[in-house]
Amino acid sequence: MAKGVVKQRKSRRCLWCIVAIVILGGIAGGIYYVVKKKILDKNSSSTSSLEDKYSDALKIAMQFFDVQKSGKLVDDKIPWRGNSGLKDGSQAKLDLSMGMYDAGDNVKFGFPMAFTATVLSWAILEYGEHMEHINQREPAENSLAWITDFLLNAHPSQNVLYIQVGDPKEDHKCWEKPEKMTTKRPLKLVNSSKPGSDVAAETAAALASASLVFKKTDSTYSSTLLKHAKQLFTFADKYKGSYTKSHPEVATYYNSTGYGDELLWAASWLYHATGDTTYLRYVTEENADKYAKVDGPTWFSWDNKLAGAQVLLSRLSFFGDKGAKGNSGIDDYKKSADELMCALLPDSPSATASRTKSGLIWITKWDSLQHPVGSAFLAVLYSDYMRASDNEILSCGDDSFEPSDLRKFAQSQADYVLGDNPMDISYLVGYGDKYPEFVHHRGASIPVDATTGCTEGFKWLSSKKPNPNVAMGALVGGPFKNESFIDSRNNSMQTEPTTYNSAVLVGLLSSLVNTSSPVKSLK
């Protein structure tokens, strides 16, 4: 009851009025408190339930890195995996035994592997506390180091980088477990006469971002990573050329559509790692005109990093980085990132039409989930940058959106992956009651005790029985545009998982585990 509403009166009747009002007010207040508490408890329970879902999914997704490891396995957590590729690199007197296989075969491709490391580093840097909350930071860092150790060994001198172990053409003639490989393991490299600016720059980005991850826990290792990152960037920039032009036979598997995006991406990470404004000038002056000017939004993937660079550089604008202050080039990247976010939001006037009826971003039938998961990861990063920097409005034409709208979009893509889709199937193997059982994956499809040569193993490819081994945490290719999905081992377009998509999914799920603000500086 507000002060001064009721005056003192001598009348007993009015005294009883006061008592009645007090009692009724107390009752009403109690009812309000109870109702409000129930609403808050319900909202808290709903939020907790969502976070538990994403936490459970993250724990599962993280396991796929163990499934994909090459080399002498330490504390092997996958019962059907064992040591493999132990002599990789020996013909060049290098130890290239570590690293990870790219997908369901037994080849190690440096280009997508480096991207895996860059994205995993980004996820740890932004959401490491979320991971730590559910005991997943250490596994993430261990998986990252498993790749970066390989990348360091693959860079024996300043202008030489080994980019592939194994021959995919010969490998695909066989269906055998990595532990029992019978094919030769040739190497491919890029150097000053056979340049590969794309793969060298992506490797530089991987090592620069990883140097930030390990800066506090292992400064010596961090310094080594950064040293190699700087050398690789210089190599990539000095000897320009695409690695698939130097090695045309690789284009069938991981064709690079250009190297400009990797150069910008690598320079962006090197600026974050060093604070050296030389790298900032690289991305905002002449090279911005060369490589950053595109019509409309681009899709973040192992081949195209421009959207990732736009969001990463926008970070500098959001949090008022001193080195970027007054740099109009950074503002241009943020404008491009704004346009991308507006394209992703389904209710935006500039929303992309590249979606399924259920709202999943859909760009290509091969490995269709890479683009929605990548888009969602960038969206939730942008949402968190906005929220943490008190930038609450995103303008899309005449409409305005909030950070929560971007987060809602990101959740919708994650939920689709986890089973909220017309097929009622989780595309994350091991999560939920229904997930793909015929994953296109050699190791998962062949029984542990089976003895197979190169071609004898094809009976397991064509087997009508589900995989005897579960590729825990595998994110399969995904649905067609009509949202159908055929769970067949021979349907590699839809059922083959990739390590790099898992890295992006780990980033997305880590962001959704909690709503705490990101760090304001990655340094």
TrEMBL record:
All copies of domain Glycoside hydrolase family, residue ranges: 54-509
Active site, renumbered: 440
EC top class, as a word: hydrolase
EC number(s) from the headed UniProt entry: 3.2.1.4
Keyword hit for Transport: no
Pfam families: Glyco_hydro_9
Keyword Transmembrane included in the entry's annotation: yes
Signal peptide: none
Catalyzed reactions: Endohydrolysis of (1->4)-beta-D-glucosidic linkages in cellulose, lichenin and cereal beta-D-glucans
Taxonomy, superkingdom: Eukaryota
Chain segments annotated as transmembrane: 14-35
Keyword annotations from UniProtKB, A to Z: Carbohydrate metabolism, Cellulose degradation, Glycosidase, Hydrolase, Membrane, Polysaccharide degradation, Transmembrane, Transmembrane helix
Family assignment from sequence similarity: Belongs to the glycosyl hydrolase 9 (cellulase E) family.
Protein name per its UniProtKB record: Endoglucanase
Native species: Gossypium arboreum
